[in-house]
Amino acid sequence: DEVMVSPLIRTTISDDRGDEPCYDGYPASELINKGYEIPHVIGLLWDKRLISKQEAEIIKRIMMLSADHGPCVSGAYATILAACAGIGLSQSVAAGMIMIGPRFGGAVTDAGRFFKYAVDSKMSVDEFLAYMKKNHGPVPGIGHRVKSLRNPDKRVKELVGYVKSLNIKTPCLDFALEVEKITSVKKDNLILNVDGTMAAVLVDIGFPVDSLNGFFILSRTIGLIGHWVDQKRQDSRLIRLFDYLVNYAAPKRREV
Ligand code: Q5B
């Protein structure tokens, strides 16, 4: 007798019940044999559409440019710290991943959301900045700890230059660049950063706002794995901060 069971979950992106997985209906083998690449898989699994060659090239460039930014940034540093404490690969990468948030790497979704909101509502840059200041605080996608007008971020210049060379409509990117013109005059490190640039470009090519942080998370995972393997290869020792790196502001030892 057949037993009716109501499904526990519903999926709309993939099916593994045949002899191979299908991503939004496309068999994995066909994708690899017909010249599709990782960005196409991202398009199918994150946005349920087979993206164009041009869109795939943009995504490939975004991923390559944001795969790593050295050992000093919050994510890589956390992974290195964990690796040196003898923690395994997945947990060390997770430690780095946990750092991806509103200040570091995880500003992509909100940058996309707010730039899109401004463009859709036909706000001027001044109106947008006033709105952000009143309602949300720092503008996601703007500002960098070390990059500035005097020390430009080549990744950003490269991506903007490439996307602009394609002669496609880029309303969000254009708006974000106008925002940068105003904020960077106030303070020269308030530039359009890598999160903000990725966000604007990805919104312009139609990716859903909620998927946007995924692009940084996915790309930076490549770097985080690299940092873990690098420490392992070097048989690195446990890291313990030196006292002189800490401002001990607790009260001096006293009697009870
Ligand atoms: N102020 C990124 O700030 C940072 C402002 C602002 C208005 C803003 C800050 C910020 C938005 C989040 C964002 C992604 C925390 C950055 C990344 C990937 C990375 C990382 C790497 C990689 C840096 C000093 C003064 C204050 C603030 C004002 C700052 N940002 N005002 N809008 N957006 N941005 N994150 O230097 O008057 O003095 O109180 O939160 O987009 O993560 O390489 O490192 O690839 O790994 O620490 O590139 O900009 O300065 O926060 O002390 O602020 O500037 O209100 O004003 P800082 P803060 P005041 S890309």
Describe the structure.
With 256 residues, the chain is an all-alpha fold. The protein has eleven helices and three strands; from the N terminus they run βββααααααααααα. The chain has helices at residues 28-33, 38-47, 53-66, 74-84, 89-98, 108-120, 125-135, 154-165, 171-186, 194-204, 212-233; strands at 14-15, 22-23, 26-27. A three-stranded antiparallel β-sheet has the order 1-2-3. Strand 1 and strand 2 (22-23) form a beta hairpin. Helix 3 packs antiparallel against helix 8 (154-165). The site of (3S)-citryl-Coenzyme A has 21 residues, from helix 10.
Please summarize the sheet with the most strands.
3 strands, antiparallel
The amount of helix comes to 40-55%
Q: By helix and strand content, what is the structural category?
A: mainly alpha
Question: Order of helices and strands, N to C?
Answer: EEEHHHHHHHHHHH
Strand order of the largest sheet: 1-2-3
Secondary-structure map with pairings?
Blueprint: E1 14-15, E2 22-23, E3 26-27, H1 28-33, H2 38-47, H3 53-66, H4 74-84, H5 89-98, H6 108-120, H7 125-135, H8 154-165, H9 171-186, H10 194-204, H11 212-233
Antiparallel strand pairs: 1-2, 2-3
This protein binds (3S)-citryl-Coenzyme A.
